[in-house]
Amino acid sequence: MLSEKTNQKHCEILVNKEHKNFGLLCDTYGEAFYGVIIRIVQKKEESAEIFQDAFTKAWEKSNLFDPEKGR
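Given the sequence above, the corresponding structure tokens read:
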């Protein structure tokens, strides 16, 4: 589990669209997120596409993220 300070930093990266740190978010959350997708979809190729689409949409809509409501 990540510390509160780390979670806060990741929220800042997302909200501020710190492009240089996008990889950090993928490295931190990617494996667990992909694992959930693969369990649901059960096809590697489709899961990879869904994973990429979801991360891209989260990044594009990061201005809608409210750190007070999410982690």
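Residues 33 and 51 are 8 Å apart (CA to CA). Try to locate this feature in the token string yourself.
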